[in-house]
Write a structure and sequence with these properties.
Shape: globular
CATH architecture of the largest domain: Alpha-Beta Barrel
Radius of gyration: 26 Å
Largest sheet: 8 strands, parallel
Strand content: 15-25%
Helix content: 25-40%
Distance between the termini: 31 Å
CATH superfamily of the largest domain: Aldolase class I
Number of strands: 25
Protein name: Pentafunctional AROM polypeptide, putative
GO molecular function: 3-dehydroquinate dehydratase activity
Structural class: alpha/beta
């Protein structure tokens, strides 16, 4: 039994030492790069103590959770009440058999997701032995994490914790997109989807698991059940989440609405949907016919999940102009964040009636685009059948899509993402644009991959790789009537882009602070409206996405970092990403900063400077290839100490290698792994940056795993 409190490793200065911050001056000739604020606050700290319930012999999961959260931890048997009341920053491990006694000692009779408790209780259960959690134990906990000892454990756990603790809110990003889609998987077993899941997900912003379509294997001679057990569903969901970074929509469709769940037992739906919330599903599909008491209770217990109210009409008599349509929307909106209304139609005119209905809801705040407000749920509405396919192209909020590799379509008339793009192009809503990869061919690794994505999604755009050329050549491209955006490598100075007047270009806050523009996006309001050119920086988002693969964002808060680079410009994207995570002191090697990100940076000027610092949480090397060897002594110096994690976990320090292409000296990533660091290479950052670049240029989502596969590298965690 572990009785000590284990503190996470962080960098601190040894007492009685001081490292001064260099002062910077700005001359009259220096361009004013930014008047915008630099991110300082970072992600919000988790205010609740985290109680991890584990099974016999599985206490190692407590240590992994603590590492992911960057918190101290203990598994002392009698410590729950003391630590919950004394510190909100504690991870407390409790054996499942002791949970009832421990909670009673805290004075709690029950646990509720809606109650303002000072702690959150998560039941963890390893399914490797074929077992399943005791339902009584599950009901006493806020959430439940099912896991297997696989290479995916750490990242699956990070994603789960980030959601249930409110560290990531994928819906907040998706609701601002011009268009969102989700893939409706129709496999009887998730295993069948895994070989093609990355291809299936191209163009999707979420993936739906149709629980009612899952078929649980039954013993020989037994009568197959029409409803898969929670044991089977839990393992299927775990498997799906391990193989996709997309948000998951948990759906239990009833027999009346083209599903297989029986309608004679509404409590069955509640049991499965409630468990989906506990399992950390991002979206929960709740059918409107369910009793109001169940819908209200799920809304009260949803935590950080998003409720999608679902209504289907297969009668063929539905009219969007009727008072019933407005009533259905109003009733759905009472307990939902997204309202789905889907009807079978037999006339082409029904699509125009739907668009009028959508416009009335949009004026009230529930549609897409600029008329939306946060108080009214979004509306996702389409017509079924061949005559209703036009509405699927016109719907912009969570359009259900299919794919040729799926065994069957989920609803009549469903289209693929490629077919929707083709239809939009024919209607003039998706005009052909000329996009560019600007820079030497060796410096624009995304260009070939982006062409693959255009083909996969049937986008009408063309992509041309060109050299940067003489001054003024890029501006001439931007003035072309069909200009659709550009990826620029190496990036342009943001001050240069901001100075363009013909055409005028807006530079984003991040690009101004970083001082570099690597993506020029074309932003349009309404179709046919005036276009605005925006200079963006996608690299910092790629760096941030990489850093938060194995740690929740708040794990970096207040921790110190070391960054090595040959110049400030080489380090600026990493500096911005670290600041967005709320890191503490940042120590620099190889450069001095004087731009907007310079405040608070402290240089290592001698060996004594290094020796005064105890332990960093994250180290980033942006050194050129010929100098990449210089980081290795620091990696060895700050070797990981303390208790070793189990084989499935990684160590509690992060190393990020941003060294680009070229003849390297040494193997910093290999040295980092050998010294106990969680190490990432430039390939991960490049893949995530490509994902962000495509979102900026064409507004379409391409999963990270597809980027790695199409780039010739199959990602393994």
């Amino acid at each position: 039994m572990q009785t000590a409190i284990h503190q996470p490793m962080a960098m601190t200065l040894v007492a009685d030492t001081t490292i001064t911050t260099p002062t910077t001056s700005t001359t009259a000739s220096s361009p004013r790069v930014s008047s915008q604020p630099v991110p300082q606050d970072g992600p919000a700290e988790v205010e609740q103590a985290v109680v991890i319930v584990y099974g016999p012999g599985q206490d190692a999961i407590v240590h992994v959770v603590a590492e992911v959260l960057g918190r101290p931890w203990t598994t002392e048997k009698t410590s729950l009440a003391t630590h919950v009341r004394g510190s909100s920053a504690m991870v407390v491990g409790v054996l499942g058999a002791d949970l009832a006694h421990s909670l009673d000692a805290c004075g709690d009779e029950a646990v509720s997701l809606s109650s303002p408790t000072p702690r959150i209780v998560i039941n963890t259960h390893c399914v490797d032995d074929g077992s399943f959690p005791d339902e009584t134990l599950t009901e006493r906990c806020d959430y439940e994490f099912l896991y297997s000892h696989s290479p995916f454990l750490r990242r699956d756990l990070t994603r789960f914790l980030a959601l249930v603790l409110g560290q990531t809110r994928p819906h907040e990003d998706l609701r601002t997109k011009t268009r969102t889609n989700f893939i409706s998987t129709t496999f009887l077993d998730v295993h069948a989807a895994l070989p093609n899941l990355d291809i299936l997900s191209v163009g999707s912003d979420a993936v739906e698991i149709r629980v009612d379509l899952l078929v649980e294997p039954s013993p020989p001679g037994a009568v197959p059940s029409s409803v898969p057990s929670l044991r089977y569903v839990g393992r299927q969901l775990m498997l799906l989440r391990q193989h996709t970074e997309l948000p998951i929509i948990f759906t239990t469709r009833c027999t009346r609405e083209n599903g297989k769940f029986p309608m004679d037992d509404p409590a069955l739906f509640y049991r499965y949907l409630r468990r989906a919330i506990q399992w950390g599903c991002e979206y929960i599909d709740v059918e409107l016919w369910l009793p109001e008491a169940i819908r209200r209770r799920l809304a009260e217990q949803k935590g950080h999940s998003v409720i999608m109210s679902a209504f289907h009409d297969f009668s063929g008599q539905w009219r969007w102009t009727s008072a019933e349509a407005a009533r259905i929307f109003a009733e759905s909106a009472r307990y939902a964040d997204i309202v789905k209304m889907i009807a079978m139609v037999d006339t082409i005119e029904a699509n125009y009636e739907l668009e009028y209905f959508r416009s009335t809801v949009t004026r009230g705040g529930g549609g897409g685009g600029g008329g939306r407000n946060d108080a009214t749920p979004l509306l996702s509405a389409v017509n079924m059948g061949q005559l209703g396919q036009l509405s699927r192209a016109l719907n912009t909020v969570f359009s259900p899509i299919t794919h040729p590799l799926l065994p069957m379509i989920a609803a009549p008339g469903q289209l693929t993402a490629a077919e929707i793009n083709e239809a939009m192009h024919i209607m003039g809503a998706l005009p052909k644009r000329d996009l560019y990869a600007i820079g030497p061919s060796r410096a624009t690794p995304q260009s070939m991959f982006m062409e693959k994505c255009f083909n996969e999604l049937s986008l009408p755009h063309t992509l041309t790789s060109i050299d940067r050329g003489p001054p003024g050549s890029i501006e001439s491209l931007l003035r072309q009537p069909r200009f659709g955006g550009a990826a620029v490598h190496p990036p342009l100075a943001s001050a240069t882009v901001a100075a363009w007047t013909c055409p005028a270009t807006i530079v984003s806050e991040a690009a101004r602070a970083i001082g570099l523009v690597d993506t020029i996006a074309v932003v349009r309001g309404e179709p046919g409206g005036r276009a605005t050119l925006v200079g963006e920086n996608a690299s910092w988002k790629g760096i941030r996405a990489t850093l938060t693969r194995d740690y929740v964002p708040s794990a970096y808060r207040g921790r110190a970092a070391i960054i090595l680079a040959g110049s400030e410009s080489e380090a600026s994207a990493a500096l911005y990403a670290l600041r967005s995570l709320g890191v503490g002191a940042i120590y620099t090697v190889g450069f001095r900063a004087c731009g907007p990100l310079a405040a608070g940076l402290e240089p290592f000027t001698s060996l004594q400077s290094v020796q005064r610092v105890e332990q960093p949480f994250v180290m980033v090397s942006a050194l050129p290839p010929e100098k990449s060897l210089l980081v290795q002594p620091l990696l060895r110096h700050y070797r990981t100490t303390g208790r070793t994690s189990p084989a499935a976990a990684t160590c509690g320090k992060v190393y990020l290698d941003l060294t680009g292409a070229g003849a390297r000296k040494g193997d910093p990533v290999g040295v980092a792994v050998g010294a106990g660091w969680t190490a990432y290479g430039i390939e991960e950052v490049t893949a995530w940056t490509t994902v962000e670049t495509l979102r900026l240029l064409v507004g379409q989502n391409v999963p990270f795993d597809f980027v790695r596969m199409a780039s010739g590298r199959i990602y393994l965690p």
